[in-house]
# Entry
Amino acid sequence: MTLKLQFAAASDTGKARTNNEDSYLLAPELDLAMVADGMGGHKSGEVASALAVKVTRDKYDSMKNTGMKPTPYNEKFSLESNQLGFAVQLANSVIYEAGNSGAENKGMGTTLSAALLNKTRICIAHIGDSRIYLFRAGVMQQLTEDHSLVMEHVKKGLLTKEQAETSPLQNILTRALGAQKTPAVDLLETELEVGDRLLLCTDGLFKAVKEAELQETLKIQPDDQKACETLVTAANANGGPDNVTVVIGSVSKKTFKENLKDMFRKSYA
# Structure
């Protein structure tokens, strides 16, 4: 069985910010979606997040077309996951160099969470505290791990998850693109099922809207675009303390016609 994953998205500046430093990218031709949350003075946060999604998309596309096997290579994961991870590392190099090339972009950085459909699996490359959730059979599960100081404290038992949600330390990241020459990028893969939905979001969503409400919205709103817009509206209704970006994708089975199209495309590639 071959699956397809179709995405919708919405992004908003929120109520407290004057500019939107979030970026997202939907690349249906690559079965790829990404969200990024930039940081830095002036408008460098916007620059960092935009670079992250564009460089990652373009590099992954070129590696997919050539079948290039990146080095280093993690044998635990598929070629596609390794290519995606390598593309994210290239984006980091570009952002790191840009951040060190002039005073106006000093300290620029960004989170990045990328999800790629590979046959029946989702391949994820992730750094920072944006999130990817899997919604299956009415239950939502966070697939990514926040690279933040509060999450380190939660893992060590110094804070509960509830305390972490209101901690003044919650905006301090332990990892981000542009902060180091070669930061660790998390790779993970998980099997998908027909009917699954993926939610990718920046912290402007989950810091303003409780996970129970995110789950309930996905339960009652089957339309991905409307669900994205509903969640952005909910974040703003709760004060809109940050930029908010939401991407939702639904998993379905490819039709016989779509499979045939794919076969012809591969034959003439």
Observations:
- Residues 3-268 form a domain with the Phosphatase 2c; domain 1 fold (CATH 3.60.40.10).
- The first helix runs from residue 44 to 66.
